[in-house]
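Recap quiz, item 2
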Amino acid sequence: MTGTLVARGLKKSFDDLEVLAGVDLQARSGQVTAVLGPSGCGKSTLLRVLAGFEAATTGEVLLDGVRLTGPSPDRGMVAQAGGLFPWLTLRDNLAFGPRAARRPDHEVRAVVEELLSATGLDGFAGALPKQLSGGMRQRAAIAQVLANRPPVLLLDEPFGALDAQTRLRMHEWLLALLTDRATTVVLVTHDVEEALLLGDRLCLLSNRPARVVDDLPVPFGRGRGRAVLAEPEFVAMKAAVLERVLAA
Amino acid sequence: MSAALLEDALVTGAAQGSAPRRRRGGARRLLGLLVPALLLGAWYVVSSQEIVSTRLIPAPGTVTNALVAFFTGDRTDTLAGVVPFTGAGVEHLTASLARCGISWLLAVAVGVTVGLALGLSRVVRELLEPLLNALRAVPLFAWLPLALVWFGLGEGAARAIIFVGALWPVLVAVADASARVPRGHVETARMLGTPRRWLWRRVYLPAALPEVVTGLRLSLTLAWTCVIVGELSGTDRGVGAMMSAARETGRTEQVVVGIVVFAVVGLLADTLLRRSTARWVRWARA
């Protein structure tokens, strides 16, 4: 599966407020590109432009060389509060994308069953989102987007509203989930630990208006778990990156 | 995944235990019968002691007899020469229900369509909102002379009045609720591949449904109360027509029969509507 997402010279202003000051970014297939930056620097705007919810003032977004306009099932986005529709059961939420794509019923059922088990929510197919815990809801929101098998997954602080323990569990769950998928992931976060734990690459943004000030590989291989948190290299890199963020 | 499963188990546990709540609900419903029962007792005392003339407040027994006669009696008693009373209950009720039902369904169809257009399109909103708000402020009775001029005495005018009365609650509820659907839901639906032209069906309408159902209930109640206004327009069948004929001939107990029929049927219709739409609003209940 291909899925190279390239942003070139993205600028975005809201009236007089310049939010993105020319962002260049390349996210590769099978990699998690973590975009890290100080609060309010324009990370979410960047992701919304990549998703197609906002048009860039100048610059372009390309998926495998094709210029993108508007949102599409090719780029699944999950935000902090999750995108589940509160009036649909979990099953219908997961089936929403495949049904919109007019996939045949038996295929929709198969996709839903697969995602229910991948999220550990097998017993909750008939539950409404409000009956699920915060962690379950975010797993379900990610599954809802994955149901369309998008080449690109855009995550906007997807675990930001969760408590620390649940968040760590979600990190491990997401790492396991992505292992077998060649999905291009762009993860926006302000949490250095989250960026280093999940990312294969790290893009550091400046304060608003945002530019990419640093782009470095994360040297901890795939298949890492929470054990990596205690390793000296991880601790050292976390401290160094935190300094860079605070100085940005 | 075991941690996730533990968390799931905790949530399932919390989701159970609704049986005691239901039992308490039953007891509360009995409580709701207490006040009507007391009023009925007071009514009985007032009329049996003749504290007030039975011409103003007929005895419960007289009303009950009239009610029974209304539905089961022979066709002998005709009010004001043209409106039958005894044995004509079903006929009057059917006429009123048909009138109300047809006009209400039409009001719902128009209200949902125009309401969605108002909620979804700024152009439509700017174009129509001032006019609709002005029309909405016109009292229902003010439409009656115009309805009579347009449709003549009888069925057409009655239906028009009920339609106007039932239209506004649906229209306002749908317009308001669909305009307030969070943008995030719309974006999610678009991102998951929903074409623009289906957003109303997949997002706006379901998201607005709880408020729409409230609008439907208000509208049905209003339609039912408008039946009497509509039936003042010279129809000779219908519960309202019967009541106005009964008033002209001074048969207070038959007027009260009409009130009882309106109250009971109105309550039944609302309950039926609430029950049949409960499935749509389950997600929004606290």
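The helical segments of chain A are 43-51, 90-100, 105-118, 134-146, 164-179, 192-198, 232-247.
Chain A has a mean pLDDT of 87.
End of item.
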